[in-house]
Design goal:
The chain has one domain: Deoxyribonuclease I, Chain A (4-Layer Sandwich). The relative contact order is 0.17. The chain starts with a strand and ends in a 6-residue tail after the last strand. It is globular and about 55 Å long. The longest helix has 18 residues. It is built from 4 helices and 12 strands. By secondary structure, it is α+β, with helices and mostly antiparallel strands.
């Protein structure tokens, strides 16, 4: 069966870095990420005077012809060259209110971009980006029930956007070690690292990742790489994550 490599990258930025460092990191995402047309990340919320990440993301997304969507502190960007004209849809999925959490921050809202891929046979793809709160990895942790609620809503969303031949993905900073715990918390999505058994430190352990909907039978993890500062210089306290999904192409009517 013919296949297609779908490339993605995820970068958890740092809201408290100086403006020059934030500019460097965002610029690098686009100038060095041309082979990864789907880009996701975190820490681009508004409200902090010293956080310019959203401003820079908007600027470089425009320069590099990407559509971009923000919600909460998360973001998704997609190179317009892989989007079939007229097929794009930007939406937000509300997960939990900041009032429910035991840590300071923002409401957890997942930005998404949905589109028909220009490659015949790939079909419709929807990508979301999430940022789980800290202190929620295990039962008994203050934010564990909050993270369970996030995972449940993401699972429900994936079942909707991944229905039939459509494909759904969710990337993020999950703030729990992927090697020993489940990003989905019993839900219906699996990380690329779990599928490949290729867990790597993303800056604070294996807590960032890229996941596919379990019922997307045309999707298989092919490669997952984490680039530390010696390979991809970032001022953020997280490392660059890059991955490749192998997509089995559908037959296209002629």
């Amino acid at each position: 069966m013919p296949t297609f490599d779908l490339r993605m990258q995820h970068t958890s930025l740092q809201f408290s870095d100086p403006a020059a460092q934030q500019h460097h990191d965002v610029e690098a995402l686009f100038t060095e990420g041309h082979n990864f047309p789907i880009k996701t990340g975190t820490e681009a919320f508004t409200g902090a005077d010293d956080n310019h990440n959203r401003e820079y993301l908007l600027d470089f997304a425009s320069q590099f012809n990407h559509s971009i969507n923000f919600a909460g502190d998360a973001w998704v960007a997609v190179d317009n060259t892989i989007i079939t004209k007229g097929s794009k849809k930007l939406e937000d999925v509300f997960l939990v209110s900041n009032d429910e959490m035991h840590t300071h921050g923002t409401d957890r809202i997942m930005p998404t971009i949905s589109f028909e891929h220009t490659k015949p046979g790939v079909g419709r793809i929807t990508v979301g980006s999430v940022h789980y709160p800290t202190k929620g990895a295990k039962p008994g942790d203050p934010n564990h029930e909050v993270n369970v609620k996030c995972a449940e809503k993401i699972s429900k969303w994936l079942a909707k956007v991944g229905h039939g031949a459509d494909l759904g993905f969710v990337n993020g900073d999950f703030n729990m070690p992927d090697r020993t715990l489940d990003f989905a918390l019993g839900g219906n999505f699996t990380s690329m690292a779990d599928e490949l058994k290729a867990w790597q430190n993303t800056g604070h352990g294996p807590i960032d990742g890229m996941c596919s909907y379990d019922r997307d039978g045309r999707v298989h993890a092919k490669r997952f790489n984490v680039l530390d500062d010696s390979e991809f210089k970032m001022f953020s306290d997280h490392f660059m994550c890059r991955g490749v999904w192998e997509i089995w192409l559908r037959k296209v009517a002629r």
